[in-house]
Each structure stands twice: as structure tokens, then as C-alpha cells.
Amino acid sequence: MNKIILSALILACFLAVGLTAQTQEQEQSDIEVLVTASRVEEPAEKAPAYVSVITAEELTASGQSTLVEALDSLAGIHFRSSSGNSAQAEVTMRGFGENSFGRVLVLLDGRRLNRPDMASVNWLEIPIESIERVEVVRGGSSVLYGDNAVAGVINIITKKGTEKFGFDVSGLYGSFNQNQERAGVSGSIGELRLSANAEHSATDGYRDRSAYRSLGGGVSLGVDLERFSSSLALSYNRLSYQLPGALTLAEFGADPTQAQPGHTSDQAVNQYLNAGLGLALGAGDTWLFDTDASYSMKTIRTDIASWFSFSDLLLHSIAATPKLRLDFDLLAGNRLVAGVDGYLDILDLTTYPDVDRTTTTVEAGLTKATVGFYATDELSLLPSLVLSAGLRYELAWIAAAIAKTPATPFEEAQLLQSLVYDGGVLLAPLPGSKLWAKFGSVFRYPFTDEIVDLYGFLAQPFNTSLRPEKGYQLDIGAEVTLLGLLKLAASGFWLDMQDEIAYDSLAMLNVNLDKTRRLGAEAEIGVTIPSWLELSGSYTYTFAVFREGAYAGKTIPLVPAHQASAQARLLLPLGVSIGTSGDYVGEQYFGSDPENAQGLLPDYFLLGAFVSYRPSYVPGKLEVYFGMDNILDTRYAGTGFYGFNLATFDYEVFYYPGQGRAWKVGASYRY
Q: Is-above-0.70 flag for pTM?
């Protein structure tokens, strides 16, 4: 294994540590614009942050079947899954371990997808075919976005229609009966832009009881006039999946494809409906007022027979986010952005003692309402030198009315507040290059599950002593592009947190921890030799430790110190290309083991390869591809926890196996 690790690191260093290389065609496209970095469109070189953008063209060319696979190769981003499917994968950034997905804000066209409870987002909720680009901003953005934006922001931008009519279709089949079918169409009628898409995805899964099926689609309408624009987007997704559970070390060694003994009927069915309306009114480069309003409804039916847990959840989410941008002729330019973010989540939960659902054990109604006021200002001292500063004040109101059998019903509410700030400097001496530094504070409100006892395991039904998480961060970094052939990006970060929230098994209560610290570095490189070769790679180092309290000096669980990824693509004559990829994830302590007493979850290296064919004589863009993942059939666990084993009535470590060797073949066509 050490030789494999060494080979992976050498490969990562040789290919560098990197950014997905841009093809010659992409270099000739329009300049990248970012929304998440400053909540207004601006060139990438003007954003005072470490930002990566994955375009629709790159998603198609990669042959990846899910957005999770495409994002996982970027520096500073890692996914883990305990359910065996990408839909419920948990994203981690900037050295957060358990519940790290709650510290990364995920947006759809600027609208929040994060749930108020401890469940991760559904990554299959938005079909890949509907995505125009995905923007990833590393580091805290609490001033601009408020709750959840502690470690980073991922904004999924959907297609809004094209000037000319076009369509695209694709299909994929692979190991474990994996299949995926996609279709999309876009165009315009006068000033009206139209876009529609549909996607079906399913697999039997590498492990027993790890199958899932997803069906979804969406439609987008938009109008662009000289000073006014509007958009309407609707989407729906239905996801059903099984839960294979975890394995002990002996079970993992004997057969990693088996489900956890006793987990023969754990499963869930989720349905998601999203609607978004956007309006914008402006006068050229002088001012712009825009507002987004959105509504989503989620219904989740969960049957966890192994824990005698059966529940139905209905979640309504409403949001309104108006903002105003003003541009002034002050020095080399000044831009002020101010706005209000309002969110309302209404959660109704009913739990039952059995799958028949004839009687109830818990009937709960929870409400979380937040309103945040923010303002940021960017002053250009010179065309290439920009200073920025921002401030945000946000209130959160969490209320619960819970009836349990046979406990006495109760009602409770709590008001929380946070004030955060940031400031930065950006130097962009050359096109495509920049240096930046940013300092500021961040925060996160508790999940509803953390503050309210829904299932009867905690000592208090409503934890009024729980405080919001808060922290202070410093980011520095640089990007440089040389001759359109080489692109380098690197950043270093320091993040001190206090009042992080974790479960205390002795007190049977969620508590605020003592201070923690995270230090790290992220780097990417991309090399493109037009019509011949593309190389890319990334490397992430993270040091995460408890600073004070009972675990002072211990490493935060589920945070690998080293991660590396590398890709190479050779462009051959007649439209043929071949490529390979390697991904390395270092050792990490098991979840729920802050004492670091249970040893380390082993590191692993995964090797992949693919070949594709793009015939030039076919009108439009046709691509046929074949790929293999985990060619070495490495046996590994993507995540693991220390917990109680009902079978042995004792505590031990559990493993969640990753997928073994798999192949897939597919084709896509765009016209």
C-alpha cells in the first residue's frame, strides 16, 4: 500500500496539483463570471477568493454520472457517504469532520438548498443536464450569505435558454446495473428564453441493499430586456434508496459488499418540488436592483427498521432575497451591495413504532425563521488594486411544538443573533492573474435536530443553552495564467472556531465545544497543450485540532490530513482521446472518537481510466466513451464511526465500504 501511496503522490506532484485544464474551445468562450463570490456577476480575476468553476461542457466531457463525482476532484473538496449513493453524500471543506455538510452552503441559482435539520442536501435533486456551471468558493462567506457559509459556498447555476434552438441527449450503462438517461432542450422565441430537461438515474449498488433510483426534471423561462429581466424555474425530483448500514472490521474484511446484518429493510423515499422567481431592474453599469423568491416542498418517508424508527417528514421552505448594487465614480471605481435575506422553514414530523403507521410516537412541528441584513463595499484604488469590507447582522427564531407518547406535550422557542464582518485586498496585475488576502468572522446556527429533542434521546426537550458557532478566518492566495497554457492556483487558510456543536453521550445533550483550530493549504494546476494534451491535479493539506478542553491537542475526527487528485488526457487524431485519473485520501480518525483512541481509518488510492471518441463528420457534438473506476479494485472505506453495536452490546468501530471496480459505457449528443 505504501508503494501505491508514493506513486499517487509522485503522480500528483508530476501533474502538479490542480485545476481542470481548459480546452482550446473553452479558452475562446466568454469570460467566466461569478455570482457566489460577491453576489454580483464579475470576472473571476476580480473575486477576492479561491474560486473554481465547472462548466456544462466540462461536465459532459468528463463522463461523470453525478455532480458529486465532478466536484470531488477539486482541491479542498471531499465527499463521503454512509448510504452508498451520491444523492446523500456529505461534502466536507476546510477541515470539518462530522456534520461538515452543515458548514458548506449549497445554492441553486443563488437559492439555499441546505435543510434546517441534520440531513444533507440531495445532490441528484438537480439533473446534470440542467446545469450551466457550478461555482465553488472556498472559505467562509458569512457576511454575504449568513448561516451555513462557514467553510465554503457551492452555487449551482442552471441553464436559462439559448439564442438558437438546441437539444442534447445522453445515456449510460455500467456495473451493478447502473443506468442513466438524460435529455434537454433550449431555445428562444423573441425575447422569451426556454429551457427544459429530464433525467433518470438508477443502480443496484455495489453493496447489498444499496440500490437507488432518481427521476427528475425541470423547466426554466426567462425574459431579457434592456433594463429589465425575469426568470421562472420549476423542478421536481423523486429519489428512493436503500440503506445498507455499516460493517464491523471482521465483516468488512470478509465481504465488503454485504449489508449490515439485520439491515434488511432500511430505506427511504424523498420527493422534492422547487419553484424560483427572479426579477432584475437596472441602468447599465450605474445601479441594479434584483430579487429572488423561492418555494420548495420536501416529503421524506424513512423506514429504519433496524432502529425501530419510522417517520414521515414534510418540509416547506420559503425565501426572499432582494439586493441593490450601486456603482460610483470614486477613484478607480466603487461598488456597494446591500440586501436582505429572509428564510422560513416549516417542518412537520411524525414518527411511528412500526411500518404500518397506525399509531404515533412523536408529532412535532418546528419553525425556523431567519432574517439577515448585509452590506459590502469594494473600492478600487487602482484598476488592479481593490479593497473590500462587509458587515452582516442576522436573527434566527427557532420554535417547536412537540407531542410524544406518553410524555407531556411542550412548546418552546428561542431567539439567536449573530454579527459578522470581513475585509480583503485584491491585486490583479495581469489578465487571468490575481493575489488576494481576506480576514473575517463566520457563524452557524444549530440544526433543529441539535437544539430540539425529537426522538427522546436527549436530557432536555429544548436546549436553550446551545449557542451559535462562531469563528475567525484568514485566507491568502494567488492565481496565475501563462499564455493560456498553464494555470496555477494556491491558497493558505487559518480558521479558529469556538462553540462548535457536538453530542455529549455522557450528558445526553448537544453541547458547545471548546476552541478548535484548522490550518491548511490548497493548490491546483492545469496544463493544456492545444489539440494534444491536458493535465490537471490538486492537493490539499489540512491540520485540524482541538485547542482547549478535554480533547486539547487531539485531532478532529474524519479530517484527512492529505488529499490529492490528478488527471491526464491525451488527444489523439480522428477525435479519439484517452485518459487516466488518480485520487488519494489520507488517514483519518473515526467519527465520534475525539479522544483519538480507536486508531485510524486507513488511507486509500483509486485509479481510473477512460477512452472517448468524437467524430468530426457528425453534425453537432457526438461523444462515445468507456470508463473504469477503481481499476485496482482497492478495498477501502470512505468513512467510519465509533459507536454502539446492538449485536454485541458493546462499542466498536464501524466501516462504510466504498465501491469496488466498476465500468461504464455511454454516449452523448448535443446539437
A: yes
